[in-house]
């Protein structure tokens, strides 16, 4: 028996809705038709895709694995349809991107604005999140590609797909305007050991930034923790401590309009790489290729902070 796109479509709908009834309403079909189709798919694959319980359905381990592949196959079929009906035309269809939270505001608005002009038939959907949230969604096939940091102490990305380099950002320090080191050039972490640190802790960034202190033999005084990039800028601007970040903005000003001083680190820790994670480089769609190219152009020349 052969797997059909209809079976995969109904299976994904049930997985998203959490019940046969809700999926049937979404598909404008009878519950029995959806249930029969999903049962046929389970029979063809020889695995149970769902666990049935009083509140509805939940995916089995095998079901989670099949779901990611099913989404990919449905997107490939959609891409084939667009290419067949619009041979030689501009990039079209839908591209779903997952982006690490702190990279998103610096990258996505520019790309989406550019694509709206260059590719009017292309729809870009996106979601921001932590590394673990994005990787879970990627495994379930919710994204065509991810934009994430490739942390040196994490080696799991190659097991999940193909990595395509987009750019690299050296870490830097944020200082209050009135800080004694403002305007003195590159800053050594040892000179900040007694100052309160505002730690960016959206996982696994906290581990990364603390490793920089460890590399210089410095024990920081962690006073505040937050996973919000703008909260960090606001706290630093208010003079409540200093922080380390990698994402670089053109204007060192908080939401309140209070300025702070960004500065390069005296010790060269090397840049933190930004990569696109895709299921397979050999099957990269035209729209994904266009996104990767645009991202590389945007991230090619990060802002530098001389602190003079």
From TrEMBL:
<keyword id="KW-0010">Activator</keyword>
<protein>
    <submittedName>
        <fullName>LysR family transcriptional regulator</fullName>
    </submittedName>
</protein>
<dbReference type="InterPro" id="IPR036388">
    <property type="entry name" value="WH-like_DNA-bd_sf"/>
</dbReference>
<dbReference type="GO" id="GO:0003677">
    <property type="term" value="F:DNA binding"/>
</dbReference>
<comment type="similarity">
    <text>Belongs to the LysR transcriptional regulatory family.</text>
</comment>
<dbReference type="GO" id="GO:0032993">
    <property type="term" value="C:protein-DNA complex"/>
</dbReference>
<feature type="domain" description="HTH lysR-type">
    <location>
        <begin position="3"/>
        <end position="60"/>
    </location>
</feature>
<dbReference type="InterPro" id="IPR005119">
    <property type="entry name" value="LysR_subst-bd"/>
</dbReference>
<dbReference type="Pfam" id="PF00126">
    <property type="entry name" value="HTH_1"/>
</dbReference>
<dbReference type="Pfam" id="PF03466">
    <property type="entry name" value="LysR_substrate"/>
</dbReference>
<keyword id="KW-0238">DNA-binding</keyword>
<dbReference type="InterPro" id="IPR036390">
    <property type="entry name" value="WH_DNA-bd_sf"/>
</dbReference>
<dbReference type="InterPro" id="IPR000847">
    <property type="entry name" value="LysR_HTH_N"/>
</dbReference>
<keyword id="KW-0805">Transcription regulation</keyword>
<dbReference type="GO" id="GO:0003700">
    <property type="term" value="F:DNA-binding transcription factor activity"/>
</dbReference>
<keyword id="KW-0804">Transcription</keyword>
């Amino acid at each position: 028996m052969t797997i059909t796109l209809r079976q995969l479509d109904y299976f994904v709908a049930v997985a998203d809705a959490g019940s046969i009834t809700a999926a049937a309403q979404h598909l404008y079909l009878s519950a029995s038709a959806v249930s029969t189709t999903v049962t046929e798919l389970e029979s063809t694959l020889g695995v149970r895709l769902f666990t049935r319980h009083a509140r509805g359905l939940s995916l089995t381990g095998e079901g989670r694995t099949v779901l990611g592949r099913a989404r990919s196959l449905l997107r490939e079929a959609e891409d084939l349809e667009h290419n067949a009906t619009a041979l030689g035309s501009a990039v079209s269809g839908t591209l779903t991107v997952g982006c690490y939270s702190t990279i998103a505001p610096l990258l996505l608005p520019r790309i989406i604005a550019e694509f709206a002009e260059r590719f009017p038939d292309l729809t870009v959907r996106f979601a921001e999140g932590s590394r673990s949230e994005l990787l879970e969604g990627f495994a379930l096939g919710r994204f065509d590609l991810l934009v994430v940091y490739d942390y040196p102490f994490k080696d799991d990305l190659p097991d999940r797909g193909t990595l395509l380099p987009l750019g690299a950002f050296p870490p830097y320090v944020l200082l209050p305007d009135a800080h004694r080191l403002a305007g003195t050039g590159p800053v050594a972490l040892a000179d900040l050991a007694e100052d309160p640190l505002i730690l960016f802790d959206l996982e696994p960034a906290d581990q990364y930034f603390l490793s920089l202190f460890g590399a210089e033999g410095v024990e920081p005084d962690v006073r505040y923790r937050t996973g919000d990039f703008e909260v960090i800028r606001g706290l630093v601007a208010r003079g409540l401590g200093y922080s380390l970040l990698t994402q670089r903005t053109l204007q060192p000003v908080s939401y309140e309009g209070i300025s702070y001083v960004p500065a390069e680190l005296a010790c060269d820790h090397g840049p933190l790489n930004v990569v696109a994670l895709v299921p397979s480089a050999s099957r990269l769609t035209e729209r994904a290729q266009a996104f990767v190219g645009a991202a590389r152009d945007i991230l090619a020349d990060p802002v530098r902070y001389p602190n003079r």
